Amino acid sequence: MSRSYPRTNAAAIALAACGALLISGCTGSDSAPSPGAAVGGASGSAYAPITVYAAASLTKVFDEIGAEVERQTGADIQFQYAGSSDLATQLGAGAPGDVFASADEKQMTAAVDNGSVSGGTQKPFATNTLTVIVPPTNPGGVTTLSDLSKPGVSTVVCAPQVPCGRATKELFDKTGIMVRPVSEESKVTDVLGKVSSGQADAGLVYVTDATGAGDAVKAIGTPEARSILNRYPIAVTTHGSEDPGRKATADAFVHAVLGEKGRNTLRKAGFGAPAAAQS
After folding, report:
1. Which pLDDT tens digit goes with each residue over 253-264?
2. 13 closest CA partner among 56, 65, 68, 51
3. Which of 90, 157, 268, 278 supports an S-S bond with 95, CB 3.0-4.6 Å?
4. Rounded to the nearest 5°, which phi and psi values hold at 276?
5. Which strands, in side-by-side order, build the sheet including 99-101?
């Protein structure tokens, strides 16, 4: 399994195992696909390498789930982690991603609208909320969300076009807190990096990012953010559905994310349970 951050041309698809299993939708079952089974009953098909386009906040969890799916299928899985809006745009421009996991419903809708995901195929798999983080020494003396508005406190946030940025704007609008960020980042992991390295006094990231950072940052209780949920959907893309081998591996990955082990991995990382889509 490899991870890709800048966009690169996808490797040529090659057969990676002897046969594949019909993935029967995405139920809670964890019955693993086994190399050697036919895809959809068609002998001669095989698990093929795929690229998963996923929100940056999913990096650690998807790396773990991907390693297990690779073990089960024998197929290589590459990951492209970035802001969901960038990923949706890349897919719409023809980037060869086979699975798309967005940090909100809006960018999944954008992928459906641009034709890179078939409508009605996306499934919710997690939720996330924001929290304030500071460096371990807390140089800005931040103890509440409202402290971000104090003079001299340098705050980093996500850009408004990405899911964590939209949630941040909603949080500030809801609370009436006026914050002038020193920078707006294209993905939540960049906010985390600037705070953990001491380049900023505070930042707003997902709870899961704060949890995953361990002692590199300190999370500040942010009860105001609890009602602002980011709903994460996942889908096999139209590109991933075009080839039986790619679709077999893509289905296996989605199945693993939605299955019991996947849900437990997400929960341990701090993600919430899936929530109904907003109307």
Report:
1. 999 999 999 999
2. 51
3. 90
4. -60, 145
5. 2-4, 77-82, 50-55, 99-101, 230-236, 123-128
